[in-house]
């Protein structure tokens, strides 16, 4: 546990990071804590291009959150695309902004800042022609093509609000999001390519939009050229609308606090929430954290292999890197296509210096053997990042020793959709690391641990992770439902933001995230709600009740365990299991899948009818001897059946 990895010596090329050593980190941390407004105003003014610079920092607080969202830089005016594009076109027009690596190895496109600016302007002009106005919402349902980033930025150019939906989500899920945010325009592509397979994106959109009267247009980018169904009058080809559009499009002024995007994310209960991020604070925070965490330099080739459908893609493929004039890679494929060497093949071919992925991918690749790594030249690598779930020390060491040859910095970055950017992480190459620890909070982030009696825990210990003070990149609200925002994050501990995670703090003040303490699952770094699975399953006629919990999974981090109570007269069989799988896939998407089904006579409930999830969890985790007190159960015999029929991975 106290195994500390010394920091490899700083390489000699120049770093422009505002934090150059641990003393400066402590100084910045103290200043952000003592004078948060002054600290963040400085950062915001220095890092972004403003049409009108903000003169004040924070308005509102966690204590007054039920009266309305807090705000940062409230009187500032900007358009985020000027910070991400225009100013770089003035200084380095031919620098590569986006490297695109397609599904087939070596299928590459490069867009300079000049080219990206032009494409964003044309697309914005095309969208305006289609009727899009400031403040209106656009759903983007695409694969990993540069046009997905272009679509996001084009919306931002017009002051419109994008909501990207991960391309694995089902038609049902797309429809829910279209309705919730009231989008009238959807942007998609004919089909996607992933791991040699074709993804029917346009078809899913058509299904999602059946009967949705308020949809004006669907803009369709041609990726594969395959035939797709067409709705005359509604559907518009990207190349027809965009290619002939004007190369310049004025950036529409937005207030710092105008929403930049909505991103739906799963919680403990109900349908996914539309988390709202704003223009000024979000871009300030993603730009700042991207530079200080990764120690970004001018000639870096930066590759985050997440999908833009998740917050990681928003903050650290698109907005943070482009604000920082970085060269950012977009990867269309999967880590094992055509084989487990794909990432390192890309590192060699593109000369990647900073590489950012999820622990689940590291575990999957480590299991395939080191020869896939050794084959490729990885000497350009300098910083290796992980995000999405706790990284087990074995996977950390493999990443450090095998991928990084023991000379790269590992940054285990802890954050959430709601935090907008990284909150707890080492700073490469400054922070001494310990395998499995996200280490220390970034300036402006004040983590606190709450103990079982809801008291603030001082010193080393384990508790529930909260944050004591707002920062500019924090989500402001849930789209259309501020009370839900308050209830989800601010009602557990008055005056504090509750992350939903457990965390241990050691004697060095290092943080070790232990995982979710609520009913949120983290499967292969994908966040999913148990309630979403349960509602998909109980919608099947044969099912009376369903209880979903996570269990430890060697590759995925967490697997999905489903307890199913059938209606009287039905018995489990393969056809029924297939039907249940289909129901989950249709309601949520292809990335959601139950790993283990257990058919049970009933769920363990208290006399007041509440399901005792603790029992379900313990049995799924393979610890039926640790059920604790079950004397309050209405029918203790249910537990015997659950324990004796417990399932585990083969
Ligand atoms: C949840 C947030 C942030 C981008 C990707 C996920 C877990 C995230 C770490 C980490 C341990 C982590 C937490 C968090 N998580 N990063 N470095 N160590 N756990 O965003 O989908 O909003 O999920 O992912 O449980 O609450 P998300």
Question: How is this structure best described in words?
Answer:
Helices cover 31% and strands 22% of the residues. With 650 residues, it is of the alpha/beta class. The chain folds into two domains: 375 residues, ANL, N-terminal domain (Rossmann fold); 125 residues, GMP Synthetase, Chain A, domain 3, CATH 3.30.300.30. The strands form nine sheets. The protein has a seven-stranded mixed β-sheet, with helices on both faces. Strands 7-6-8-11-12 form a five-stranded parallel β-sheet, sandwiched between helices. It is globular. It starts with 21 loop residues before the first helix and ends in a 6-residue tail after the last helix. The mean pLDDT is 96. Bound molecules: 5'-O-[(S)-butoxy(hydroxy)phosphoryl]adenosine. The site of 5'-O-[(S)-butoxy(hydroxy)phosphoryl]adenosine (WT7) has 23 residues, from helix 10, strand 20, strand 25 and strand 26.
What structural class is derived from the secondary structure elements? alpha/beta
How many helices?
19
> Could you report the average pLDDT, rounded to the nearest whole number?
96
Principal-axes geometry comes out as globular
- Counting structural domains, the number is 2
Ligands present: 5'-O-[(S)-butoxy(hydroxy)phosphoryl]adenosine
Query: Quick one: CATH class of the largest domain?
Result: Alpha Beta
Distance between the termini: 31 Å
* Strand line-up of the largest beta sheet: 5-4-17-16-18-19-20
Report the β-strand fraction as a percent range. Answer: 15-25%
The CATH architecture designation of the largest domain is 3-Layer(aba) Sandwich
Q: CATH H level of the largest domain: which superfamily?
A: ANL, N-terminal domain
Which regions are unreliable across 5 or more consecutive residues at pLDDT < 50? none
Rg over CA atoms? 24 Å
CATH fold name of the largest domain: Rossmann fold
